[in-house]
């Protein structure tokens, strides 16, 4: 359904100005990169939108790397993030680096981290990597600022924990302690398609090669939002990461997903491929320990 009620387009120069626009008595949509606007429109989710607020001039296109982790501003593009030294050189960010290789150049140059997260689309790639990295969303609204862990931010299909008048201003990734690696792999119909299944992993090991902390996240229609797999994480933690352990962890993810059927794949196919893609992701991550 088209944007038939759209009557205003705003380009605020500050976060404060954007918040003021959101407080108006009109149905407003925050616009960051805008690359999925057509997807939301095709699903009839924009039929009541009266105003668009473009965040590109509010100064949120920043990336700050420190000893405690990475802070990513909401309007940072995938291309900016992909080029950043921390993403290119930090083993603990390997899952994010992998995920940023999948979008085609025209998407990387326009799509933003904040917009990708705020859309709450389970078929996107970057959110799966961010969940595996314990990402935390910063949201601002008229009542102040909130920090929301990503698993709590995604509450359903195209639904988030944002309150009316709030918008995403950034995502923070805490740096884990110890030797940490990760990986991301996506199953897609073609090079430019949304995910059928995707998986991201982050693994921390001690000096003896025993996994001390694990994160396994899946997306791509394996549920109505990106999910973690506690079953897989528990099987990995406290063990050496040999082939048997990786296979057992990959098989365990089926208990933590509820796949959907759509024009890309059936629920049964997604369930079967979730195990395969998770195993390959874990194997890629472990190979980076060598």
Furnish the topology, listing elements before pairings.
Blueprint: E1 8-10, H1 15-22, E2 28-31, H2 37-42, E3 51-54, E4 63-66, E5 69-73, H3 78-83, H4 85-89, H5 94-99, H6 105-108, H7 113-118, H8 126-132, E6 136-141, E7 144-149, H9 150-153, E8 154-156, E9 159-160, E10 167-174, E11 179-188, E12 195-205, E13 211-219, E14 227-228, H10 230-236, H11 243-252, H12 267-287
Parallel strand pairs: 1-3, 2-3
Antiparallel strand pairs: 4-5, 5-10, 6-7, 6-10, 8-9, 11-12, 12-13, 13-14
Features:
single chain, globular, 290 residues, 14 strands, Enolase-like, domain 1, Uridine Diphospho-n-acetylenolpyruvylglucosamine Reductase, domain 3, 3 domains, alpha+beta, five-stranded antiparallel sheet
Helix-residue proportion: 25-40%
Q: How many separate structural domains?
A: 3
- CA radius of gyration is 19 Å
Q: Specify the biggest β-sheet.
A: 5 strands, antiparallel
What would the principal axes of the Cα set say about the shape? globular
CATH architecture of the largest domain: 2-Layer Sandwich
Number of helices: 12
